[in-house]
Amino acid sequence: MAALVREELRSLVRPGIETREMNAFVEKRLAKLGGKPAFKGYRGYPASVCVSVNEEVVHGIPGQRRLAAGDLVSVDVGVEYKGFFSDTAFSSGAGEINGATATLMTVTRAALWEGISRAREGNHVSDISNAVQKFVEARGFSVVRDFVGHGIGRHLHEEPQVPNYGASGQGMVLKAGQMLAIEPMVNEGGAAVRVLDNGWTAVAVDGRRSAHFEHTVLVTQGDPEVLTLAEGEALA
Asked: Per residue in 169-180, pLDDT tens?
């Protein structure tokens, strides 16, 4: 359900649309599918989806902002269904984007899959973190440290935290049956962020662009199972 709504949201990222239209779509679509928006009301968050534009890293609140051609748009959606939660995100360009923005998005998405590949029974949580950091920094970008991935299941946010940085071989040892929301947030410039006066939206301090990709992943005794994989989506 989360994957379906995410991919339908992707088609809405285009110049001229107001971000609140994406929020309205999520509410109507999930109601039809029988799910609930996981974000609305969570710790007071006022919307059903997060839409973060350009230098906004995460938790952008949908409103009257109208997307412009060339914007980098990160969309994060969570779903509750019969007492369980999923969480997924993507970044996309509104219309034609420049090469630097395309590279940032490509690296961030690939870093997500680097992290997912380490989500195996017997590995440490920080093996995921280290894989993401090494991949991103080797390509000249920065991983955000103020916000992290997380366990997920009967609650939207559970233990363990899953940072996108750190030494390998540290923290919890993963066991089959655990679910993780793995979500690299990658900045074009420095890693520093600040939260706007609305209390939610985090932006890159240097004003440069940020990208965000996320999947909900099940740890197994073998290859990790990506629960928010869309039909036909590539495994890398």
From this structure: 999 999 999 999
- Residue entry with tokens 């107001």: 18
| Domains, in order of start, for the chain | 2-226 (3.90.230.10)
Q: What is the pLDDT of residue 235?
A: 72
CA dist 19 and 51 (Å) reads 7
Check residue 129 and give left, alpha or beta (phi > 0: left; psi -120 to 50: alpha): alpha
Residue 21 exposed, middle or buried by CB count within 10 Å (0-12, 13-18, 19+): middle
Q: Which has the closest alpha carbon to 161: 171, 151, 147, 172?
A: 151
What are the CA-CA distances from residue 46 to residues 37, 136, 236 (Å)?
A: 11, 32, 33
CA distance 98 to 205: 21
| CA distance to 13, 72, 131, 141, 199, per residue, from 184 (Å) | 20, 16, 11, 12, 21
- Reported residue count of the chain is 236
pTM over 0.85: yes
